[in-house]
Structures are given as structure tokens and as C-alpha cells.
Amino acid sequence: MNKVEIIAHDCLGVEAVMAETRHSFAKHTHEAFGIGFMHSGAQKSASGRGMVEAGAGNIITVNPREVHDGHPIGDAPRGWNMLYFDPDLIARAASDLSETATDQYEFTRPVMDSPHVRQCFGALFDAVTNGSEESARLRREEMLLMMLHHAMIGPGEPTPKSNARTAVAHARIKRAKALLDDSPTHSHSLDDLANVTGLSKFQTLRDFTRATDLTPHAYLIQRRIDLARAMIKSGETLADIASAAGFADQSHLNRHFVRAFGLTPGHYARAVRGN
Fold this sequence. Notes:
alpha+beta, four-stranded antiparallel sheet, globular
């Protein structure tokens, strides 16, 4: 089996690739940052840190113009999902992450075994390949920043913790929550939230999540679900509710409603309307 497929490419500088192959790749480079998840098989490859091996469950990375290759280990194909990012996109994210405002970033580990990076990558890959541009925007921004943040932390190192939240910081997050509460159907970005908090995008994401136990995107989805529930009780059609509550379509509403409550909006409607 030799299958390498580009499944998403957008104007924001992100390309998604799915591969399952026994092909041996010759030494080459990319102009982009690459990070991926090996979901099956194993391979060995040259990298800027020497020869490395990766297997199922590992995160693999490559920096722009880093010479690398790739050869299967054993007779079975190996498979991976990969995201490639335009360097300018990573530079902007790195500047937001850094306390010194530097836009320099580098993957220092060609192979990682990090649950945090795996989780963020999976959510980001799903948002890039399955989410509509508007509905997935905030989720993509969140997961990119968190993925890059966790990728900077070496094995065995604790995630850096900030000082206890001050009253000022808490008030800033309250402003971000108010923005989402007041306009839950709007397509918000981390830039919008950072503008009202006066913090960087990463600080806003981190402090918002600590204060609410939800990322801004998850908080926004919950507010939309709350709005949808109220509209269901009023007797409106599910198709109209999905659109009015800020969901991309009815299937988008169904997916999040079931995830939160364990039943479909249709079942909920029949229960609360008594029919």
C-alpha cells in the first residue's frame, strides 16, 4: 500500500496530509513546519538531531529546511496524519507564546511521546479537516497555541505554572466571558478575546481555561447549546434552531448536543414538548 493524500489546504497557511505507505522517502526538505501523529507501523528517519525511530502513538516533527528521510521498519506499511504550517503562521504564534516577544520557534524533538501534544494535535487535525472555516476558527487557534506550548516542554518537565490569579486577572477573564455570553452566535477569535482582556492570546487562553475549566471554544459551544435548548422548548424547528444558535448546520448541533447530554436534540424536543 502506498497512499499519500493531501486532504485539506487553506489560505491560512495550513496543509493536512494523510499517509499509509511502505515507500522509502529519499532525503528532502520542506519549506514549512511539520508535525504529525503516527497511528500505525514504525519508521526510521534521518533528522537534524541524527537518526531517530518512531512508532504508533508517537508525534513526529520537522522544521523548515531540515533534511530528513523516512524508511519503514519491517514489512508492514506505516501510517500518519500530518499538518504543515507556513513559517509566518508559526512565527506569529511563537511571538504570542514568548514572554520576550521573539518570533523564533523550533521543534527540538523529532519524535515525541507526549499525551498533551497528541491530544492537541488530534483536536487541531479534526478542526482543520472537518470543521467549517467559521465554526472551527477559534478551536484551531486554541489547539495550535496549546500544541506548540506543550511541544516546547521536554520529557519529565512539569508544565510551567503561573502565580495565583489576581483580582485584576480574574476581572480580565470576566470581560472575555461577557463577550462570549453577550454574543454566543458570533464567530469569535482569540484576537477578539485578547483585545478585551489586554493579555496575549496564549495568556488569555491559559487564564480563561483555568478560570472556567473550559477553553474559550468549549465555553462558546456550551453557550450555543444553552441557547438551542431554550429555543427547542419554545417549539422552533431544529433546522432553524441550529442556524440561529450559531451552529454550522443541524448535524453540527446534533454532535455537540449528544456529546454534552447523551441524547439528540430531537429526543430532547419530544421529551420537553410532550410529543
